[in-house]
Design goal:
The protein is α/β, with parallel strands linked by helices. Helices cover about 35% and strands about 20% of the residues. The termini are close together.
């Protein structure tokens, strides 16, 4: 089976997962910026990966615009983020980013990445500073809020190759 891994990455976590996935499956791996150099119809399986930021999976809208022309192919979406893999939060992200008519056809897989302040741009750093300030101002934070404040205080990496098992099994058929 000829497989393509396309990815949109800003701080490196999605890229790392895409490269691991390509290695494990013997697939071609292409960054989002070079997507127009690839003929999607030439692949049996296509996985698209993007990072989740402020509820939006980068590049997912473009991917789902291509999906109607890719019938008969195995399609998957994977997305990375800093949050632990909470089923409710993951479900909300899928609901906000995967068109309803695609939810049965294109499964979505969440892969926890992390935060890399060193690779963030000004706007992302400012958003994170706002989040840190908001969490610090809580008078009686919940355990989840305390954990979130601890996690966003510095860069961290929770990516792990074993997180790819379900996605790889799906793409292999």
């Amino acid at each position: 089976m000829k497989t393509l891994i396309l990815y949109y990455s800003k701080t490196g976590f999605t890229q790392r997962y895409a490269q691991w996935l390509a290695e494990d499956l013997g697939a071609q791996c292409v960054p989002y910026e070079k997507r127009k150099t690839v003929r999607l119809s030439g692949y049996d399986a296509i996985a698209f990966g993007g990072r989740l930021t402020a509820g939006v999976i980068g590049g997912a809208k473009w991917f789902f615009q291509q999906a109607p022309g890719l019938s008969g192919r195995r399609l998957a979406l994977f997305f990375t983020g800093a949050m632990p893999p909470d089923p409710e939060a993951v479900g909300k992200a899928v609901e906000q980013n995967v068109p309803q008519d695609m939810r049965g056809r294109v499964p979505a897989f969440y892969l926890q990445g992390g935060l890399c302040y060193e690779k963030m741009g000004f706007i992302d750093k400012a958003m994170m500073a706002g989040l840190r300030k908001m969490l610090a101002s809580k008078k009686a934070p919940s355990p989840e809020e305390r954990e979130a404040a601890r996690m966003v205080a510095q860069s961290y990496d929770m990516s792990a190759r074993e997180n790819l098992h379900d996605l790889e099994a799906y793409l292999r058929g």
